[in-house]
Amino acid sequence: MLTSITDGFLCCLLGKTPNAVGPLDSVESSDGFTFLEVKPGRILRIRHSVPERPGPPGSPGPPGSPRSPRSPERGAVRCKRRITLYRNGQLLIENLPDAAHPETPRGQRPDADGDPGTPDPAGIPAKRRKRKPKRVVTVDCKKRITSCKGTHGDVVLFFIHGVGGSLDIWKEQLDFFSKLGYEVVAPDLAGHGCSSAPPVAAAYTFYALAEDMRAVFKRYAKKRNILIGHSYGVSFCTFLAHEYPELVHKVIMINGGGPTALEPSLCSIFNLPPCVLHCLSPCLAWSFLKAGFARQGAKEKQLLKEGNAFNVSSFVLRATMSGQYWPEGDELYHAELAVPVLLVHGMHDKFVPVEEDQRMAEILLIAFLKVIDEGSHMVMLECPDTVNTLLHEFVLWEPD
């Protein structure tokens, strides 16, 4: 800790940041990892595992080879809903006939300050002045939800980590699904893990990172793609599912929070100068360990170290937290999604209350919330077997 304080003090005096991490000198591939240049000088480390499928004639071949026709798909779900946003912020979601859940309108009902009221117990509608909605969106599409097995050559699983993490936090999940025959892709966000760290704050805004994830998705996507995100990474999964509805087959959100628009806090510790954050880095790491894990023993400390989590420079940490501005990602944006979503929540999570994931389950059209009693924010590290089982069941899930 004394070294961190000394370095931080010197960087304040000299006007330098202790976080200046330049682009990678080499883009050579290493065992199990590749380096993708999404923009000139902006290089992301990616773990990309492709299973070998020699199999009999007609079985799926390597990427780029002709794929044999699959059996007729089942599990067609009709998404037909009307989403009304009123000027006071109230949101009314109506699942219209022939929708997945036509009997239960989801979302908040307008109140007296909003718009249409509900009938009283006597069956007489309350007399309230109707106000003109701010926006009305109608979603009408048909989605085919099928089981995705490791033997299917058109299935890819994408894993996206959150702030301060790296693709290494997914080690147990990547190994689990790779052994089952799935093609998996897991990138390091810019400035995280072994990806290059541009020295400008604008490189870490939500939109900059989202464009990186778009480039990775377009590079490796196939016909059926499943997105798995953790914490901040959930926002990028939602973004991709909204941008590519025909390619995103299912989404898994782990401790991602509620369907609210992102906006950085003005009174956050991450608004302090990078040199001050560098001095406080031991305290921040301890706070993350305490809030991110249900227990704080030697095992959890080792998991944090092996997962290469919270091992980013103070500059990258500050820029990433301050760049979480995404006004489009509100409840209306999430309500438009017609993709099945599995919500996984660690009960002891001190960063994301379970009520936020419950609200997310109410807004989404097809959503399942699973709470893990023994887990916290880093539940994929704490309870890998439980998480792997839940994820695999959802990947194989197919509606009747």
Protein model, in words:
Residues 115-125 have a biased composition (Low complexity). Residues 48-77, 94-135 are annotated as: Disordered. Residues 53-66 have a biased composition (Pro residues). One of its GO terms (cellular component) is mitochondrion. This is Protein ABHD8. This protein is α/β, with parallel strands linked by helices. It has a domain at 145-396: Alpha/Beta hydrolase fold, catalytic domain (Rossmann fold, 3-Layer(aba) Sandwich). Helices cover 29% and strands 19% of the residues. It contains twelve helices and eleven strands. It has helices at residues 2-14, 171-179, 206-220, 233-243, 274-279, 281-292, 298-306, 314-322, 331-335, 354-363, 379-382, 384-396, and strands at residues 33-39, 42-49, 76-85, 91-95, 135-144, 155-160, 183-187, 224-230, 248-254, 341-346, 367-372. The strands form two sheets. Strands 1-2-7-6-8-9-10-11 form an eight-stranded mixed beta sheet, sandwiched between helices. Strands 4-3-5 form a three-stranded antiparallel beta sheet. Helix 10 (354-363) links the parallel strand 10 and strand 11. Helix 2 (171-179) crosses helix 12 (384-396). The chain is globular and about 60 Å long. Mean pLDDT is 80; it is low at 1-28, 56-72 and 99-122.
